Amino acid sequence: MAEYVEQRMEEMINEVEQMERVNLLTGDEVKELLRKRKQFEYKLQKRSKSKDDFLEYIQYESNLLRLLTMRRESTGYNHKQAEIEGSIKTRINKLFKIMEHRNQSDVTIWLSHIQFLKGSGWEEAVSRMYLRMLQVHSDKPGLWVEAASWEFENCGSAENARKILLRGLRFLPGSWILQREYVKMELLYVEQLRKRKQVLETKKDNENDDDSSEENKEDNVETDDDKVLDCSIVKLVATNAVESIKDPKFVVSLIATIRRFQFAESVVTDLFDILVEKFPSSPITWDTLAREKLKEGIVPCVEKYFEGLEKDGSKSLFQMAFTTMIDLPTIYPKSMVRITKNILKLLKHGKDHHLLSVEHIKFWLQLLDDETQNEQKAELLSEALEQFPNSVDLWTEQLMFTNKSKGSQALDKSFSEALEAVQGDNSNSVKIWEVLLSLTDSESGWELMNAEAGLLNRNNPSLRLLHLDRASYRGVASAREVYTAYKDQPPFNAALHWRMADLERAEAKVDLGQLRLVLTSLCDFHGQEEPRAWMEAAKLETEAGKPLEAAKIIARGEATLKPELRDKFAILREAADI
Question: What pLDDT was estimated at residue 213?
């Protein structure tokens, strides 16, 4: 091991001497540099080397490069730059190669190496590194795209970019990203040629006519270029992409990509024809065609949607049409009346063909006026609840409508029906109760909750909490009555005790006896799973000046808690210093 390290250190002597000679590093800095490098070299000679050993060495050498650059900028002295910085970059490059060989599956190492090469200005090495990386990671479409982008944008080689993408498509023919980027690359190539042609035509107008033989040669070249400039290659590539990926969403994504290039409108037209031909019954096809009609106005767009709904009639197409129409005000802000009429027409169509969801019905209800369209709203709610009897949102709308239009007796009846419809779901029952309590005065709501033969499900822990909260509005005495009625009755719920403890603490003058009873009940019923309960009880006794009682509670807690919670309990004790 030592002889290899010494050999490496000897190879660095000339480089280090040059740094000191040109005053880039002082003598002490050179000694520290050699010491650190020797340390890193020994790490790399170990039997078991880790990725971090290489990364630390690379980071150190990179920092050294930045230091040398800063000192050269401050002194303006660039002598021996190739020998010094060049040798450091070569060393970093070698370290990256070793690390890549040992960690081929780690993409970040490859990308970091490529980034280093780009920063060093080694463009040819970057191209080779991309090819090496793609040999290992041929299953990642993003890397193929990145390599092709480098060749096209930085190296100016459309041919190499095309080869890389075509090779990637042989590995991943079903990749949306690769297919789309290949089409985009061909479009960018055509754009380059068109700009070049414009420049050449401008120059040609300023020059004299050449002899006839040269004109014939130029005509042949122009004929070949015209085949590219009219997007014939792009059409071929796009058609092959659609054949490889038989999905209307992909066709639409291609249309969006190609639309960025105004000269390729003919390709867009061809893709629309392919979309209609290959996917005539797809909701995405009808949605795309309808949105295309927005250029002509609201009516053509709506007519296309209804044409599609007559032929397809799927819920997905209906949802697409609904989403488009509610977005129309942003495009046509001065046509709100026309847009609203068309939305109502669409919703009626959805109702007749059973395509409406709860969200659609809620939106429809918002459009209806409570005074002039009262009967229509009542009918819509009735039919909607028959279709979605368990929908809390619709029952909320029903309760609000009934309260506004029919009075308290009808509200009680609707409330009873709502509870019966959602009785299997505890959380939904709570929501229904909350809606009712928000619609009635506090006394009526309180009487309804406390009625002996009332509708309150006292076995629902969430409703117990709601009952306790409502009682707290009337004062702590009412809250204590409700709490006392529930605390010993199953199903037991720790949240009830915690809520009551919070209410007791919120009093202007805290009743320690009442708070002690609450925390004692909490420890008795939930002491096995609640380490914080024991801590709060002990804290209460400590603040009351009873440290012996606090110690007893701590001892009970340690004996009662589940074994897996005792470590947590010890941490809480240490944090609270109890």
Answer: 46
